[in-house]
Amino acid sequence: MSRRGDVVIVEIPFTDVVGMKKRPAVIVQSDAYNLSIRKTVVAIFTGNLRRTADPAHLLVDPSTLEGASSGLSGPSLASCYNLFTVEQNRIEQVIGHLSDVLKSRLNNCLKRRWNCRRDFVRMRHIGNRGVKDSA
Fold first, then answer.
1. Which neighbouring-strand residues pair with 78?
2. The domain containing residue 102 runs over which residues?
3. CATH of the domain at 63
4. Would you write out the chain's pLDDT as a tens digit for each of its 135 residues?
5. Strands 130-134 vs 6-13: parallel, antiparallel or unpaired
6. What residues form DSSP beta bridges with 123?
7. Residue 1 covered by a domain
8. C-alpha 82: how far from its chain's center?
């Protein structure tokens, strides 16, 4: 089973031509869903660092304390712009895992990209008297 924060090698389809390429990626889907369904959601890493300042990209540098456990061979950006859904059995290898610090930064990148702010999210609770909203 894949875990949120695992750095994996997976085949990703090209977007402009037919074919696939093996790429490092990070699992962004929750562990609960990784256990209950066969697919998972990943963010792809790139060695192109020109979007380092973009808040929807996560810089992982394996030469730092935070990035040492990633298993990446050099500084890389995880892009939260385009997420991919892949079959878990298509994950070829787990090469590392993001530190807690980097997972927290990844959460922030995802929130910024998808405009998810906690103060706008309303939770639905089912109680004895039906459904009620809570902020």
1. 45, 58
2. 6-134
3. 2.30.30.110
4. 889 999 999 998 877 778 889 999 999 999 999 999 999 999 999 999 999 999 999 999 999 999 999 999 999 999 998 899 999 999 999 999 999 999 999 999 998 887 766 544 444 444 444 444 444
5. unpaired
6. 134
7. no
8. 10
> Which pTM does this prediction carry?
0.82
Say if 78 falls within a structural domain.
yes
DSSP annotation string for the chain: ---TTEEEEEEEE-SSSS-EEEEEEEE-S-HHHHHHSSEEEEEEEES--TTTT-TTEEEE-TTSTTTGGG--SS-EEEEEEEEEEEEGGGEEEEEEE--HHHHHHHHHHHHHHHT--GGG--EEEEETTEEEEE-
Bridge partners (DSSP) listed for residue 83:
43
Report the candidate in 100, 101, 94 with the shortest Cα–Cα distance to residue 71: 94
Phi, psi for 110 (deg, rounded to 5): -65, -40
Do residues 2 and 40 lie in contact, with contact meaning Cβ atoms separated by under 8 Å?
yes
Residue 125 β-bridge partners? 132
Please state the domain count of the chain: 1
Residue whose structure tokens are 């990148």: 109
